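User: Quick sanity check before I run a bigger batch. Here is a single chain. Can you write out its predicted 3D structure?
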Amino acid sequence: MNHNKIIIDVREPGEYESGHVEDAINIPIDYLVSGDVDWQGFDKSAEIIVYCESGARAAMAIDVLKTAGFTDLTNGINAESVIENLL
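Assistant: Done. Predicted structure follows.
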C-alpha cells in the first residue's frame, strides 16, 4: 500500500467492520458533516481518497473536506474501486 495516501471510509461503523480497505480511517459521513472532526495533525495537501458504497456519501465528504482546506481529493467510489484503481 502507498502510505503517502490517506484513505477515508465514510460508511457507518458496522459497514466498515464488515470489510474495508487496509489502513482506511473510518469517519462516518454524519460525523464528518457535523463539523466535530479535529483536523489537527492532518496534512491538508496530502492525497486523500474518500469512499463509501456508491460514491454518494464520498462526494458529500469531499465537499466538507474542501471547505476544511484539503486540496488533493479523490472520490474512490467504493472499496473495490479503490483497491483496483487507486492503490
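The mean pLDDT is 91.

User: Great, the batch can go ahead then.
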